[in-house]
Amino acid sequence: MLTRWDPFSEISRLHGEVFGDPSRGFTPAVDIKEEDGAIVLHAELPGLKPEDIEVHVENNVLTLSGERSVETKSEDEKFHRVERRYGSFSRAFVLPKHVDGDAIEAALDQGVLTLRLPKRNAVEKRRIAIQGA
């Protein structure tokens, strides 16, 4: 049996492979860079307010979580396509040992959450004398 090729369903399938399934929630994009005194993490969280976002550090793991709710304007709106993702999200990052988890700073500006993870002062290596008999 031959199946007729439908370009619209093929485009939709490819879109799902590239961008994911919008019904699954979303995963914020994150950039991490290292500076002299800190590691800086930028997370894209458009439309969220500080009260929508949770940032926790426990057992040297930084967890970023929250939820983006669907904005409903009226019952009679009929969308042909919805590509923005909604739902809860959670990202976890293992912190390097040289990050001071007690001094992390967070700021949200124009939909971008910036976390500044200060580095601890480097502990210098020292030689341990071995006692002999």
What layout of secondary structure does this protein have?
Layout: H1 7-19, E1 30-34, E2 38-44, E3 53-58, E4 61-68, E5 87-94, E6 105-109, E7 112-118
Antiparallel strand pairs: 1-2, 2-7, 3-4, 4-5, 6-7
List the keywords:
4-stranded antiparallel beta sheet, mainly beta, 35% strand, 10% helix, 3-stranded antiparallel beta sheet, 133 residues, Immunoglobulin-like, elongated, 1 helix
Quick recap:
The protein is mainly β and 133 residues long. It has a domain at 25-70 and 84-118: Immunoglobulin-like. 10% of the residues lie in helices and 35% in strands.
Describe the structure.
With 133 residues, this protein is mainly beta. The protein has a domain of 81 residues: Immunoglobulin-like (Sandwich). 10% of the residues lie in helices and 35% in strands. The protein has 1 helix and 7 strands. A 4-stranded antiparallel sheet has the order 1-2-7-6, with no helix packed on it. The chain has a 3-stranded antiparallel sheet with strand order 3-4-5, with no helix packed on it. Strand 1 and strand 2 form a beta hairpin. The longest helix has 13 residues.
Q: Which series of helices and strands comes N to C? A: HEEEEEEE
Number of helices, where a helix is a run of at least 4 consecutive DSSP H or I residues = 1
Major pleated sheet:
4 strands, antiparallel
Strand order of the largest sheet: 1-2-7-6
Helix content: under 10%
Mean pLDDT: 80
